[in-house]
Amino acid sequence: MIEYLGQVRAIVWKDLLLEARTRERVVAMGAFAVLTGVLFNYSIDRTVVRPQDIGAGLIWMTIVFGGLLGVGRTFHLEAQDGALQGVLMSPAPKDAVFLAKVLSNFVLLYIVSLMIVAVFMLFFGLELGSSAASLGLVLALGVLGFVALATLFAAVSAGTRMGETLLPILIFPLLIPMIVYGAGATSRLLAGRPGTEVADNIRMLAAFALTAVAAGAVLFRFVVED
Amino acid sequence: MNASELAVTIVPDSGVSSPAVPALEARGLVREYGSVVAVAGIDLALQRGEFLTVFGPNGAGKSSLLGMLAGSLRPTRGEVLLNGATLDFGSVDLRRHIGVLSHQGFLYAQLTVEENLRFYGRLYGLRDLDRRVPERLSHVRLAERASSLVGQLSHGMRQRLALARSLLHDPDVVLLDEPYTGLDPSAAAILRAVLTEVRDGHRSVVMVTHNLREGLALASRVAVQVRGRFAWQGKGDEVDTSDFERLYHRVVEGGP
Amino acid sequence: MSVKGIRLTGTALAVLGLLGLVLVYWLSFFWVSTEVSQGIAQRIFYVHVPAAWTSFLAFGIAAFTSGMYLWLRDERLDRAALAAAEGGMVFATIMLTTGPLWGKIAWGTYWEWDPRLTSTLLLWFIFLGYFMVRTGTENPEKGKRFAAVVAIIGALDIPFIHLSVVWFRTLHPDPVVLKPEQPTLPADMLTLLLVSLAVFTMLFMGLFLLRYALENLRAEAQARSREATA
Question: CB distance B34–C140 less than 8 Å?
């Protein structure tokens, strides 16, 4: 067990170290967040629609697209030097590799999602009130579920001829629960409702995330075996 | 030279009185990719300390063979045994005893030499990395470059680092896939020196290469793989380089 | 059961299913009473709902056999998953085409996020993903494994999808009050619905078995041609 955790930690640390050195994905996702906010601003007619009404939806859609951008590349760096092969050939169990990937992708996307919320609050005058912690939790659970599915299917699409372009087709139907409960909760919290009102959503998001992580951990080995 | 007289599971004249359990054994290995048959049935048995070099043209299935021996490629049929224990495709424990050097390198270009080794050391659950890593680096003559990013190394240096990585956990079985590819003569000389040290009598090595000279220099056993089978096998010290070149061409063009 | 036996059973079920379908059509036009608010157009209900049910049943079979395939590696399980997925997609398509037609006639709009239609639409796309990964790899063995993973994850997600879509609906009810059926169906409508469900299931099972047998034959033919050329 200790060794298992050590292996997971080693891979997560390696991924975060690589990301810190190259800053490839975090810069791309961060720029994406801000620019998307700008685009959205110009795509809405403020005399007809209040940004506060659709802010939650815009935030979550941006998280999804930004996440696709970042997580889709999760195996790209490894594929370049065949490095993933080396990891898969090692005694590290496949589910450990998967969990490590999910963890490092989660850290990355969670930071970006907080960035997105901050940017959108700034651009569209959204307010949080006292429910920041609840929002933080909602984001965390939603992002976790997303990352688990995206990591698993990034490995799948990397093995197809279409490559990363297949990823959205595969995961968008699966993400509906995350969007519904996540954006639903965010919408309430941004409207000033207390955290207790979104407890049900949080429970569903947690169940969704748990299922995605567990299923991914079990199925990942079938995706990466040769 | 008639190879068919040499049966595959012979115990070589190493002075061992009783037949030991082979360190590495393959029985009836077959690998198919859809309708393409890459490996069409290979048996082999290596004792401890033996060094098998496998030659063969491109497309003969050598990489697939190594993949199956490493436990990372699932055989369509047949099995691989490590010291008598079946290498279950999913089993991770037996992988601790196998070291693989692939022509791909498995290295992270944006990490330093030392960081790469430490990462793999942790994957393999090694404790005494502070001792092992510097030891391995000096073994492959890379000690001075420990803090260099791998992306800045020459190809020859990366090969040596990859070799250090594959030996870090002291494996019983070492599998080398075309290690001499792309190396200039001086880099090849260093590699040969390192591999000679690897050939220390405790490990079993299987090397796939196109380099006839280097391949023969180290081999205690030789095989030529053509179209998924061992078309010819022999003992390393009985083969002369110039003879072998003619033999090789004859075997490859003549068909299995 | 031999391939021949499967084909016979499949043909029998399919023929019975088709005959049953004719019966259902006749009953829904001439026997069952007309629904009060929607009129004649409501009768499409007896095709629309069973089609949905069948597509989800098919998906369940596909997911289950996919899981068994990954575990046991028996090619026949994968072929069963393929046959089920194909059938499921066909019935989902039927449901998705009859739904909007009915909606337009009965309520004046083609689409308004009815939970059942939405879930089936998403299921349809999961089926699409199944086939896209299955045929999208260089190595066919990989494609089968990928497809199996898609099916299993899809099956795990469908309950979440359905719950979320229904919940969303309670938050945003459509101004037009939609009732595909009365809260409690009159006896004759219920009977016909159940009959239709049985008929569709039988029809699907027949087609499924036939497709499965066909896939078995195809695999055998491939194996034989490979031996001949080897």
Answer: yes
pLDDT of residue B36 exceeding 70:
yes
User: What digits encode the pLDDT tens for the residues B47-64?
Assistant: 888 899 998 888 888 888
User: Assign residue B95 a region: left if phi > 0, alpha if psi is -120 to 50, beta otherwise?
Assistant: alpha
Arithmetic mean of pLDDT over chain A: 90
Q: Give me the residues paired with residue B177 across strands.
A: B208
B37 touches chain C (CB under 8 A): yes
Most confidently modeled range among B214-223, C110-119, C206-215 = C206-215
Q: What is the mean pLDDT of residues A152-166?
A: 91
- Listed by start position, the domains of chain B span 49-67+92-254
Q: Which of C137, C154, C167 sits opposite A160 (nearest CB)?
A: C137
Taking CB atoms and an 8 Å limit, are A176 and C122 in contact across chains? Answer: yes
Minimal CA separation from C161 to chain A, in Å:
5
Q: How many domains does chain A have?
A: 1
- Range scoring the smallest mean pLDDT among A63-77, B235-249, C202-216: B235-249
Q: pTM for the full model?
A: 0.88
Mean pLDDT, residues A140-158 taken together: 95
Q: Which residues of C touch A173 (CB under 8 A)?
A: 122-123, 125-126, 129, 154, 157, 161
Q: Which chains touch A (3 or more CB pairs under 8 A)?
A: B, C
Give residue C174's pLDDT. 61
CA distance B28 to B78: 5
**What CATH number belongs to B49-67+92-254?**
3.40.50.300
Q: Which residues contact B38 (CB under 8 A, 6 or more apart)?
A: B31, B32, B61, B64, B228
CA-based torsion, C6, C12, C13, C14: positive or negative: positive
- B3 to B7, B199, B232, B234, B248: CA distances (angstroms): 8, 24, 5, 6, 12
In sequence order, what are the residues at sequence separation of 6 or more whose Cβ sits closer than 8 angstroms to the Cβ of residue B226? Answer: B56, B57, B60, B251, B252, B255, B256
Given this model, what pLDDT does residue C183 score?
56
The two beta strands, B85-86 and B173-177, are unpaired
Contact B73 A6 (CB under 8 A): no
Chain B residues whose beta carbon lies within 8 Å of the beta carbon of residue A17: 111, 115
C202 and C16 Cβ atoms separated by less than 8 Å? yes
Contact between A11 and B123 using a beta-carbon 8 Å cutoff:
yes
Res. B4: pLDDT tops 60: no
Q: Which residue has the higher pLDDT, C115 or A152?
A: A152
Q: How far is B93 from chain C (nearest CA, A)?
A: 21
Question: What gap in Å lies between CA A168 and CA A154, rounded to an integer?
Answer: 9
